């Protein structure tokens, strides 16, 4: 077995877990949804740690990891909105940020003539935002099992909205710096 493929296998597992997570949410099977989403969340941290720790980083992995994250999170957010647990305004904000980042990243990599071996790497704010989004999904599922006052959900929505906006602005700043540095060449 080639252990260098473990990080990519974990990202693929996260993609596969998206369907049962969505199905359990739609069927209001919150405990199972929580367990599945928690496992998916662990694979997110584990794949990056293994790749860095053992120098298994690859171009495929640098693309597959954020794609798996976006698929799981956007699917979960859409489902949580459909079942009335996530407000539409937050879903739209997260979706627009993700669309901007995907478009901007593709544009930067294609338009800038980026070498084929260069890895995509998320910003620190983006990693924090992803962690907060994962935590929000888990929180919304857990409070279906152990209810809390509604104001705590509102606070969490505001925190995630803030991190989403800051992360999006961070990417715009990074791209502007990249464009300016290329103009100087």
Tell me what the structure shows.
Helices cover 81% and strands 0% of the residues. With 185 residues, the protein is mostly helical. Helix 1 runs antiparallel to helix 2, helix 1 packs parallel to helix 3 and helix 2 packs antiparallel against helix 5. The protein is globular.
Protein topology:
Layout: H1 6-26, H2 30-53, H3 59-82, H4 88-111, H5 124-145, H6 150-183
Helix pairs in contact: 1-2, 1-3, 2-3, 2-5, 3-4, 3-5, 4-6, 5-6
Task: Offer a quick outline of the entry.
With 185 residues, this protein is mostly helical. The chain is 81% helix and 0% strand.
What descriptors fit this protein?
6 helices; mainly alpha; 185 residues
Structure annotation, total helices = 6
Distance between the termini: 45 Å
Secondary-structure element order, N to C: HHHHHH
Overall pLDDT score: 90
What is the number of beta strands?
Answer: 0
Helix content: over 70%
Uncertain stretches of 5 or more adjacent residues = none
Could you give a short account of the major beta sheet?
A: none
Shape: globular
Using only C-alpha atoms, the radius of gyration works out to 17 Å
Instruction: Output the structural class.
Output: mainly alpha
Strand content: under 5%
């Amino acid at each position: 077995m080639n252990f260098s493929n473990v990080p990519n296998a974990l990202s693929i597992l996260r993609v596969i877990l998206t369907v049962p997570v969505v199905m359990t949410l739609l069927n209001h099977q919150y405990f199972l949804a929580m367990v599945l989403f928690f496992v998916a969340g662990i694979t997110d941290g584990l794949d990056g740690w293994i790749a860095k720790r053992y120098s298994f980083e690859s171009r495929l992995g640098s693309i597959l990891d954020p794609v798996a994250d976006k698929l799981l999170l956007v699917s979960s957010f859409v489902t949580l909105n459909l079942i009335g647990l996530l407000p539409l305004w937050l879903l739209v904000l997260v979706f627009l940020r993700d669309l901007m980042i995907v478009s901007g990243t593709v544009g930067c990599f294609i338009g800038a003539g980026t070498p084929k071996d260069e890895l995509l790497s998320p910003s620190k704010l983006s990693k924090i935002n992803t962690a907060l989004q994962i935590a929000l999904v888990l929180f919304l599922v857990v409070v279906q099992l152990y209810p809390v006052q509604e104001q705590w959900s509102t606070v969490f929505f505001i925190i995630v909205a803030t991190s989403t906006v800051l992360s999006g602005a961070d990417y715009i700043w990074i791209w502007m710096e990249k464009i300016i540095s290329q103009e100087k060449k």
